UniProtKB/TrEMBL annotation:
Residues 307-360 form the HAMP domain. InterPro entries: HAMP_dom (IPR003660), HATPase_C_sf (IPR036890), HATPase_dom (IPR003594), HptR (IPR051552), Sig_transdc_His_kin_internal (IPR010559). GO terms for molecular function: kinase activity. It is found in: Membrane. This is Two-component system sensor histidine kinase. PANTHER family: HISTIDINE KINASE-RELATED (PTHR42713), TWO-COMPONENT SENSOR KINASE YESM (PTHR42713:SF2). The lineage of its organism: Bacteria, Bacillati, Bacillota, Bacilli, Lactobacillales. Coiled coil: none annotated.
Amino acid sequence: MNRLAFIFSKGTLLNRLLRKYAIVMISLTMIATFIISAHTFIQRQIQAQQVTNEAVQSTLRTLSDKTTLSKVIKDQFVGNADKIENITTYLTKPIDQYLMYAYDKQRETSDFLSFPNLVRDMYVAYEEVSTVYLTFNQLPEYFESTRENKGGTVKRGTPQLKSAFYIKMTITQGGAEVGSMFVGFDKNELDAALSNLNTFSGLSLYMISGTSNRLYTFHDQALAKRQVAKQEKLIDHGLQADSTLPLEALARSNFIQAQGLSDDYRILATLDKRAVRRVTARSLAPLIVGVIILVGLLLLLLYKTFKRYSQQIERVMEAMDEVAKGNLDTRVDTSITEYELKDLSVGINDMLKSINQYVEDIYKLEIKQQDAHMRALQAQINPHFLYNTLEYIRMYAISEGSEELADVVYAFSALLRNNTNQEKSIRLKEELDFCEKYVYLYQMRYPNRVAYHFTIAPSLENIEVPKFIVQPLVENYFKHGIDFTRFDNALSVKVFEENGVVHLLIRDNGKGITEERLAEIKARLAHPKVELFESIGLQNVNERMRGSFGESYQMMLERNNEGGLTIHITFTRRDDRV
């Protein structure tokens, strides 16, 4: 059950419904196929019984027809004591003595016929007769005659009936049974009748007398010789043991129909069950194959029909997963969606666009609020009071001979003056001077541990740039890159021009940055939209420089050979841009 529930719970709703529909359709088809197969199987069983019954009935009709003629023939051969004497004399006397006997009888009775002549006349009168056998209980001899050998032959022993349809007639004299007469008829007519009604291959029919004589035997040509031999062996064993037919043993592998007649005939029809099963299987094979093909085509049609729709849903779901991960710039490709999914995709894209705009507006609002807060703080202190106080401290340090302290106070005063200045742009030379003083203060704090070098091409000194574009980058080095346990910390800031492009190169030998973090920062800086993340200084510089110098501006970060970080900023001067 858990595995079935897992199948139905996996994938989109459409896929789950499709799987449920496919399973229901296959189940119903299998049930219908099973019912039809069971009905066909039962019908074939009934047909098999009908075939065996019809085989017995056909044999009975033939038996009835031939019995009437056989009685006429019997009457002609052994109808009275004189005729029986004629035959027994022929069987027991030498031919010369029998001829003398026949001669004497002809003198006594003008209508007397010798036995050989009687047999020949019988074959002429009845063309369907093929064989005649005469046996007497008290005589070891019996008479055998065929249409090919009409004169017949006197033999000793037990008659071996040839292949024909025999009617056994009892010879009586004085109310007692004295012998038997077997009249054989051409079996082709009955064989043809049984072959025509044989819906299934594997039919056999036996007609047996009370004395276990095989009067007629039929085997379908399709019946295997090994199977015929096995069946014949069972029947012969039963007849020899107690003159009964082994019906129970035959019923294990055959449909059987047995009938006993009042005049001591037994008729047995058998039909091989395996042959019936083969016919049933062949008749059901087109149905089963057709059902499999039909179900396969239906499933394929359903799959093709819903595949495109399912793919469109998956694309929408993939886009929503990206949004859930925080990528608000994801958009659903509306060119691959149709109908209501297209309307849904357009609505999702509009919603994401609005969310992005809201985020950007909130971000800009926060920046403005921070700027207003800073201005309010700046306005709380009179800048001139601070400058005058710091200048007094500097002059006092000079008068006391502490020039180094005076330089520190001067650098701090210059930084403070620059920070409280409300101007939004500054000359590039002044920005570098400000940064140099910032580094100088760190050098004073950690003497003999920090070295720095600032250079700028004279032609680039007066370029107007946004304020605080270098300071945050230098500050990042002192926050994250410098190692104060070392004595060889170095920072280089270089500004030069090459092929009309201004290059600002900031290089250090600090702790560096991991490849993963570097790749993440590069991806975010290359993004055209505003994003909120931890590198606020880099992001601030990136956005303001992009706003000032447009597409000519680029910022590149890479690890250098010293193990530190190199920040390479390029842009085109405002007076050089169109």
